Amino acid sequence: MNFSEVASPAVISSVVAVGSLILSFFKLFKENDANAKKIKRIMDLSEVYGRLEDGSSAKHNIQDILDIETGRFKDILTRKLNYSNVAVVIVVAIVEGGLSYASLLLANNSCIILSVLGWIAFAIVAFFTLGVSITGLASIYNNENDKKEKK
Fold first, then answer.
1. Is the dihedral of CA 89, 91, 92, 93 positive or negative?
2. How far is CA 25 from the centre of its chain?
3. Which of 56, 86, 92, 115 has the most neighbouring CB atoms within 10 Å?
């Protein structure tokens, strides 16, 4: 085997492993931006609430909306990181990166049947890694509501 037959699978399988981990961090950055928007919304509603006349139905409605929004934001701030899901995403990314490397080495084989099987195995491994990353990221936090439902 020459260098390109070994290096090319290593680079591609690294993209599979590192790509799923980077996807995890993008979600965290996106959540921070969403939290900033929620804070601005709460501040805007508070400003409107302060300008309305006492006892008006509009002020009561804004108070209800503020109660809902601040309750949701409290839930976001008090949630706990689900360490087992984070660990699973990291382990799956590393293991699947190795499996994708092995399948690409198989795909570089001169036998056409083994080459096709290697590419099929690589596609399955890559999509499985992506699926685990997405589902793992969807449940990266434990909400207080989840604990209440389990009881």
1. positive
2. 7
3. 92
